[in-house]
């Protein structure tokens, strides 16, 4: 899951009368924020804090999400279509995986509740909850400056626009030697993702609830 999906799942695991604390929502999103700039996390530093609880929830969520049939079936179909269209296999695999996750975020962000939960999460960055500054091996000032830039950017847009999404995937994968998406295949990625857009929008909310229910029952 991408960060909005993690926020939604974390929010859904809270009790109706006791909403999930903002710092837990932030912890659930923080591993994705770190991955954007390749910050190396030290999760143990946040043990016993709301941030740490959220990080634990992030990893539990991913283990369930990555095995969910809605995700795995769509990922396989998109990957295979991209490979059949001559997109390099590593790029095809990455675009299928990340592209689905980002389209799920876009679908979930149509909900005002998701927008509010995401805004709460970004707002929690400025509150500097316990454990936040010590989460990475890089200097705290660099890490916190990155998080501040994430908060300043705000709620993402364009995740349901296949052309914008394909361009974003091109930029994300540019520095990944085995996953790089050649520029000549960006339009193909947009076309294939666009062909699957409606099915992903249709299952996004149910998938998030399925993951949250599995976490709660577990």
Architecture blueprint of SSEs:
Layout (H helix, E strand, L loop, with lengths): L2 H10 L9 H15 L13 H16 L3 H16 L4 H20 L3 H16 L12 H14 L8 H12 L12 H32 L1
Helix pairs in contact: 1-2, 1-5, 1-6, 1-9, 2-3, 2-6, 3-9, 4-5, 4-9, 5-8, 5-9, 6-7, 8-9
Report on this structure:
With 218 residues, the chain is mostly helical. The protein has one domain. Helix content is 69%, strand content 0%. The chain contains nine helices and no strands. Helix 5 crosses helix 8 (162-173). The two termini are 19 Å apart. The model has no long low-confidence stretch (mean pLDDT 95).
Please summarize what this structure is.
Helices cover 69% and strands 0% of the residues.
Distance between the termini: 19 Å
Task: Give the topology string: H per helix, E per strand.
Answer: HHHHHHHHH
- Number of helical segments? 9
Q: What low-confidence regions span 5 or more consecutive residues with pLDDT below 50?
A: none
Structural class: mainly alpha
Radius of gyration: 17 Å
How many beta strands in the DSSP annotation? 0
Q: Which whole number gives the mean pLDDT?
A: 95
Shape: globular
Q: Kindly give the count of domains.
A: 1
Strand content: under 5%
Q: Let me know the largest β-sheet.
A: none
User: What level of helicity do the residues show?
Assistant: 55-70%
